[in-house]
Specification:
Shape of chain B: flat
Distance between the termini of chain A: 51 Å
Oligomer: heterodimer
Radius of gyration of chain A: 25 Å
Number of helices of chain A: 15
Order of helices and strands of chain B: HHHHHHHHHHHHHHHHH
Helix content of chain A: over 70%
Structural class of chain A: mainly alpha
Largest sheet of chain A: none
Radius of gyration of chain B: 27 Å
Order of helices and strands of chain A: HHHHHHHHHHHHHHH
Structural class of chain B: mainly alpha
Largest sheet of chain B: none
Strand content of chain A: under 5%
Helix content of chain B: over 70%
Number of strands of chain A: 0
Number of helices of chain B: 17
Chain lengths: 293, 324
């Protein structure tokens, strides 16, 4: 009996490890393939059969990418919107959350009802577009950052976080004659770093990955983001007869597809860089959200 | 006399509220700042729904929502008689249900598998990798799909051709036959790992002595999964299921129907990839028919709201756990 139990365990273990290895591989390999394709000569990649290593190593894809002002501009716009959108979103959301975290705040029931209702119901994309248009936000950089400044999901998380902060901290500051803004800025924010880090990472990733606003709320070529350019080249590299265009490209061997994978690496890289931090905080963050304060 | 004291009592109370409000005025200022954003970007669009019942033209601006002429249900009627109506509604429903059927059990299974792993480094490794796609934009996921599945450059097609399994490349990305599989597969790939976080947390909450007792009683590992792990996750499973069914038209757990269908959709796979949201979007922003598009959008929103409340109601009845 113990022996067969052990054998059973061994079989089960093998199945578990095998399945998980397959899952991990299907999640990891696509990123790996994109990476090696970006370091391979574009015309060579088109031949297929490259699985594990770049076959004809080149930095030409990155050179073309970096020298093209279109890509550089898209990259800078994306960085700018990520930095400013995250900073402003963090500031407004946490400021409002600070005020709402006061349990004795008048009308707080009314305020909470307004917020929660807005979380569950929305007017849909079309009326939203009309609002953006009337505000004159269309085709401006502001359309990337202004509408997302108040994040209702993180607002609720921040409120429950701020409520955990010992009241004595605030009271003693009040005694010393500090105003609300000073307390928020000098006392609440410094002790809320784990929360702010979680919010910053998620808002940052959201800004970085956003595509729709660049595609439909903006027409100016100067405001296009990396995701927009990426989608553009994905469509281009899959247009029929793209291989004909290969010969006309400068730099020899660079194809739309090799530029596509290069831009994908550039887009994924920052996320991989903040990933360890994301991981450290998001489990905590998602739990904060599910536990009612 | 009694009346008199009441009045003064109310007056005193009012005075106190005013005093409290004055003391809190900076805080209310902060909240007010937030409410401005809420009113502009959430509530004004809600009023904008009115345009579904009106003859709205974009040149009228926001005021036109209120001043344009009423047309009643004309646009709803038009959508129901739209020659694409049947196809669009079918695609929306089929895609949504397929996603729930596959995307809902996937993270539960992954969480159970991970829980059976004794080697911590291996467990952590698989977990770390499985979250990654959640943080990648849909555009990159579409790029990956093309890199692997496209008929001309896709790695999978090239490998299958070279191995002699197929004579012609499979038009996975540009054929109506494959779109549902492609959409469900890529959505599960992207979001499966992310949702395991919640299920793994539920498993962590199970008392370890239950496992020990079961082992002493001679329960095998499968029996322990069935009788301890799964029942221990029940509450979480119900809550997540309610969330999923409530948001089913948006893609459920993998909440991505719109962006995915829009980015992976093309003129060739359109017969299976066009859904209500993408159609409303095209009709509205590309053709400039704002009233018609809002009407289409509104139909979807109403169904979604009904689903949220009914799934919540059923969950409360069946298991006692619910969202609100």
């Amino acid at each position: 009996m113990p022996k067969s139990q052990k054998q059973k365990d061994l079989v089960m273990d093998s199945i578990v490890y095998l399945l998980l290895s397959i899952i991990a591989l299907t999640m990891l390999y696509p990123f790996y393939y994109v990476l090696i394709a970006s370091f391979n000569k574009g015309s060579d990649t088109l031949l297929g059969g490259m699985y594990l290593w770049p076959r004809s190593v080149t930095f030409e894809n990155y050179r073309i990418f970096l020298e093209d002002p279109k890509w550089m501009k898209a990259f800078l716009v994306t960085v700018a919107r990520t930095v400013s959108g995250t900073a402003l979103g963090l500031l407004l959301t946490s400021l409002v959350a600070y005020a709402l975290s006061h349990r004795d705040l008048l009308f707080s029931k009314f305020y909470f009802t307004l917020i929660i209702f807005a979380m569950y119901f929305s007017g849909g994309l079309i009326p939203y577009y009309v609002v953006l248009r009337s505000l004159g936000l269309l085709n401006t950089f502001g359309v990337y950052i202004v509408p997302s400044m108040l994040n209702t999901f993180f607002l609720l998380i921040a409120i429950s976080f701020f409520r955990e902060i010992p009241g004595e901290l605030k009271e003693s500051a009040h005694m010393d004659g500090a105003g609300e803004f000073t307390i928020y800025f000098r006392i609440i924010l410094p002790v809320s770093m784990p929360l702010l880090a979680t919010m910053a990472l998620f808002m940052g990733v959201g800004q970085w990955n956003s595509w729709l606003d660049s595609a439909y709320f903006v027409q100016s070529e100067n405001l296009r983001t990396l995701t927009f350019r990426m989608m553009e080249i994905i469509n281009q590299s899959n247009a029929p007869m793209d291989s004909v265009a290969v010969a006309n490209r400068p730099g020899g061997g660079v194809t739309s597809f090799s530029l596509q994978v290069t831009s994908m690496v550039v887009s994924i890289l920052p996320i991989i860089c903040v990933y360890p931090f994301l991981q450290k905080y998001f489990v905590h963050g998602i739990m904060l959200g599910s536990v009612k304060g | 006399m009694q009346l008199e004291t009441n009045v003064t009592g109310a007056e005193v109370q009012r005075g106190q509220i005013w005093k409290r409000f004055k003391k809190q005025k900076v805080l209310h200022l902060f909240v007010g700042l937030g409410l401005i954003f809420l009113v502009i970007f959430s509530y004004t669009p809600m009023f904008g729904i009115l345009m579904a019942f009106k003859d709205y033209s974009i040149s009228d601006g926001i005021k036109g929502i209120f001043t344009s002429d009423w047309v009643g249900l004309r646009y709803f009627d038009e959508f129901v008689h739209d020659y694409q109506f049947g196809k669009i509604v079918r695609n929306t429903l089929v895609l949504s249900f397929l996603k729930v059927i596959f995307a809902f059990p996937a993270p539960i299974i992954l969480a159970i598998l991970l829980n059976e792993v004794k080697s911590m480094p291996f467990k952590r490794f698989v977990q770390t990798i499985s979250y990654l796609p959640h943080f990648i934009s849909w555009v990159v996921v579409v790029g990956v799909s093309y890199a692997f599945l496209s008929a001309d450059l896709g790695l999978v097609n090239k490998a299958l051709l070279q191995a002699g399994f197929i004579d012609q490349p499979l038009n996975i990305l540009t054929s109506p036959n494959y779109f549902w599989g492609l959409a469900v597969g890529s959505a599960v790939w992207k979001e499966m790992g992310w949702w395991t976080i919640i299920f793994l947390a539920a498993i962590t909450g199970i008392n370890p002595s239950l496992y020990e007792a079961a082992e002493i009683d001679g329960a095998g590992r499968l029996a322990r999964i069935r009788h301890i792990t799964l029942p221990g996750m029940k509450g979480t499973i119900v809550v997540v299921l309610v969330l999923t069914i409530g948001s089913i038209l948006g893609g459920g757990l993998v909440g991505s129907n719109f962006e995915q269908a829009y980015l992976l959709g093309n003129s060739i796979n359109n017969p299976t990839s066009e859904i209500v949201q993408t159609y409303a979007f095209k009709v509205g922003l590309s053709d400039g028919r704002f009233s018609y598009a809002s009407a289409i959008d509104l139909i979807q929103s109403v169904i979604s709201v009904i689903l949220i409340f009914s799934s919540n109601f059923i969950a409360k009845r069946v298991s006692g756990s619910s969202l609100f």
